[in-house]
Amino acid sequence: MTMVERHLDSFKLVSKKSLIFFFSMTSIMFLMSWFFVLRSSSGPNFIDHKLLPSSKLFSTLEDSMFHTKIPNGESSFGNRAILVDNEDVEDESEASKSNENTKCSDGNDFLLKVFMYDLPSEFHFGLLDWKQDGKNVWPNVRTTIPGYPGGLNLQHSIEFWLTLDILASEIPNAPKAKTVIRVQNSSEADIIFVPFFSSLSYNRNSKPRPHEKKTRNMILQEKLVKYLTSQEEWKRSKGKDHLIMAHHPNSMSDARMKLWPATFILSDFGRYPSNIANVEKDVIAPYKHLIPSYVNDDSSFESRTTLLYFQGAIYRKDGGYVRQELYYSLKDETDVHFSFGSIQKDGIKKATEGMRSSKFCLNIAGDTPSSNRLFDAIASHCVPVIISDEIELPFEDVLDYSEFCVFVRTSDAVKENYLINFIRSISKEDWTKMWKKLKEVEHIFEYNFPSKDGDAVQMIWQAVSHKVPAMKLKLNRFRRYSKSPPSIDKDLKSINLPKSFW
Ligand SMILES: *[C@@H]1O[C@H](CO)[C@@H](O)[C@H](O)[C@H]1NC(C)=O
């Protein structure tokens, strides 16, 4: 499609005769490319799936995941989620379904070459209480996968899944999607990956201990900046080709001001100045949903008896006034569930039942524009109603959210009866279409290990790969004057003054 579109742009320049020739050539090429796409998707892919369950490596990986050590207390949810995700690796219908959905989005066709720093383990798996064995800073993912703590921690566990996927790329013939490959020579890499588990560092270590001026989280960020800025890879690009994960809105709050040329993986831009993070440079990743996937959902418009479901805190900063307004306008509607309190351990069960028995699930801006509630709604096949003008949605370059979400402007939502009338006006047919679409796209928001074609891990790599050409452009522009004396190098000066990227 893009090929045809690109050629459409140049219509004006070409004479009519050559245009016809041109068009038929493109059509032929387009048809041929489809032929190859179809051939390759029914060829090696098919064989891969057949081999999957019997592969020796797969069983070791599976074994290792079932024997994952569960760290103390809080953790059980996280580890259970890993087990649940793993179970349906063998599910043939799931695998073929996700395959079908990714046909148009490149799937296995491209490889992203990633150089990953061997950061000391205190920056990553050490935070999961994994003890380094000798010199190797990485666990052997064939045999050991340290458990990520559960509960609310898990929603920002993106750092964990991406790092595992890179490590798994070093295992020959690993039963995983093959978008990413780790390379040892950074000159050959498309991106330089910084494996700092910054969300976990924030969640675990951001409370000051007595008699300590700086939190462990602040100290780790300082150490990271020192480490990075002394590396050859950073020096030669000033970080422009680096990828840093900061999914928790409060993570990296100190270091990001120094590491801003890098591409960040974020949940939204709510707490970032636009020169530090923006949609051109950075990648928005979905939260990991806390509510379990709704497998074999045979519910219907009628069987979901609650019209509209909302669970969340009421009085919040910033965007919070909308919640309050909506609460007062909806509290007397008998088929609307509106209750307060964030989803905690035992609340998960109630929220799961609530979302699975509701037609629509409200997603209102809180103290940040995004929240994991949207992804919980998707996992429950409860059509999200999004009231959050500033929300950034993951993978929106390839996903049309209007096919499975309802968007309402904040200024409309607070008008009397606007929201309830709008929701009630959505027909059974329209709702069912969106519900079906939710079931089609839900795998896009799943984090898996080993990762699968078209899952969240692969979609993030795909989104990162879309940033690579712009990174390279910036890098090459940056190098224009690299051989001139530094005093006249304009670009160099701007490094300390984050005004704009271009
Ligand atoms: C790394 O790759 C670059 C570019 O391909 C090459 O010139 C260099 O020799 C390689 N370095 C090593 C240590 O292999």
From TrEMBL:
UniProt key word Disulfide bond:
no
Protein family: Belongs to the glycosyltransferase 47 family.
Supply the alphabetized keyword list.
Answer: Glycosyltransferase, Golgi apparatus, Membrane, Signal-anchor, Transferase, Transmembrane, Transmembrane helix
Q: Where are its TM segments located?
A: 20-38
Its topology with respect to the membrane? Single-pass type II membrane protein
What this protein is called in its record is: Exostosin GT47 domain-containing protein
Q: Where is the Exostosin GT47 domain?
A: 112-416
Compartments, record wording: Golgi apparatus membrane
